[in-house]
Amino acid sequence: MDGIKYAVFTEKSLRLLGKNQYTSNVESGFTKTEIKHWVELFFGVKVVAVNSHRLPGKGRRMGPILGHTMHYRLMIITLQPGYSIPLLDRETN
């Protein structure tokens, strides 16, 4: 589970929770099948689909030196009906 950084809570991700879809940021080197395997193994759920979007890093400047932040991948994980991830379930919060 080192590849999954954190869960994303935006207006869109909260709306997707009603459709049994969970959103999280992951390391950019991981594939959809690897994330699907880790989510099924770690949380004990059945994953129907995994959608991904690679977000670019932002440019940063420190004086005359130009740099950038690391890019990351946004994953939307769709679970089978009847399954939920308890840590991210909005009904328990």
TrEMBL record:
Which InterPro entries does this chain map to? Nucleotide-bd_a/b_plait_sf (IPR012677), Ribosomal_uL23-like (IPR013025), Ribosomal_uL23/eL15/eS24_sf (IPR012678)
Q: Where in the cell is it found?
A: Plastid, Chloroplast
Spell out the Pfam families in the cross-references.
Ribosomal_L23
Source domain of life? Eukaryota
Keywords of the record, alphabetical order, are:
Chloroplast, Plastid, Ribonucleoprotein, Ribosomal protein, RNA-binding, rRNA-binding
Of the GO CC terms on this record, one is: ribonucleoprotein complex
- In its keyword annotation, does this UniProt entry include Plastid? yes
* GO biological process terms, semicolon-separated: translation
Any single GO molecular-function term of the entry would be: structural constituent of ribosome
Keyword Metal-binding present in the record's keywords: the answer is no
Q: What does this protein do?
A: Binds to 23S rRNA.
Q: Quaternary state and partners of this protein?
A: Part of the 50S ribosomal subunit.
Which HAMAP family does the entry link to? Ribosomal_uL23_B (MF_01369_B)
Q: Which family does it belong to?
A: Belongs to the universal ribosomal protein uL23 family.
- Protein name as annotated: Ribosomal protein L23
